Amino acid sequence: MSSAPHAPQTPAVPAVSSIAPGSRPRQPSLAQLRAFAAVAEHLHFRDAATALGMSQPALSGAVSALEDILDVQLLERTTRKVLLSPAGERLAARARTVLDAVAALMEEADAARAPFTGVLRLGVIPTVAPYLLPTVLRLVHDSYPDLDLQVHEEQTSSLLDGLTQGRLDLLLLAVPLGAPGVSEIPLFDEDFVLVTPRDHWLAERGDIPREALRELELLLLDEGHCLRDQALDICREAGRTTGAAVTTSAAGLSTLVQLVGGGMGVTLLPRTALRVETERNEQLATGHFADPVPSRRIALAMRTGAARQGEFEQFAAALRTAMRKLPVRIVNG
């Protein structure tokens, strides 16, 4: 008995492969990207860990984990220093872009909430902070009780870095800045006053010509203070030559006026600083310039297109009203 012929077999079709959820490539975490960006900036594990407020082993582990996820060596480690690999240099810029985008996302979320709530990180220059902060703090306390104001006193260059990098939200400082991506909201102009020893020939005069600055022994703040640069600009406009004696003697205005009281020279002070710095020193006198009086402009500065721009403009308007009692000329925005 013959058996029935076998049906031809159909070639097997390979099954469609699927990737199990657990086998998918992992994504870098924000903590790992922040760790790598900090090391790329400081090129030093300890300094980077300090900047992030984390332990050095945790930082090193985060960077190593990122290298494993990306399957790329980001750093070249030696016993003495840390260098970015060629791939690390390229990816550091990408990491910063991602972190900036996340910061912008958080800023948008903050702006979606009611204005004048949450954290406001305000940067202030040293030649403004002691004289304007009492007014600023009183305004915030009385009008914006839900605003968590955090104040950072730094020099202009550091404040601008903090603003553009997202570490700070708003600046209170002298302008113009001429910084790309930064918008200014003017608050007021204030005159400069000449501070002299009590027996100086210009003491208490109200009509001092700018030309008098040409030969005076002028005391200035250290390098890096915008007030030093403004004073030098005023002197140059008055025709002061580079050969005229200029002594850099102080890191702050309080020390500067003490040196003036000791007979070491004269200095320029903004009017908002005059009462605080000279009121209790009987060895000091003041003199006022004839028109046009040298002055500086104080403003708020923010990132151009900031999510909280409307809020910051309202804050500026409230500040102008609060500062009308100061010896300044309010500038309407």
Automatic annotation (TrEMBL):
Q: Which SUPFAM superfamilies match?
A: Periplasmic binding protein-like II, Winged helix' DNA-binding domain
Residue ranges occupied by any HTH lysR-type domain in the UniProt entry:
28-85
The superkingdom listed in its UniProt entry is: Bacteria
Entry keyword annotation includes Signal: no
Residues covered by region (Disordered): 1-26
Q: Which UniProt keywords are present, listed alphabetically?
A: Activator, DNA-binding, Transcription, Transcription regulation
Q: Which residues cross the membrane?
A: none
Q: Does the keyword Transcription apply?
A: yes
Q: Which family does it belong to?
A: Belongs to the LysR transcriptional regulatory family.
Q: What is the protein's name according to its record?
A: Probable hydrogen peroxide-inducible genes activator
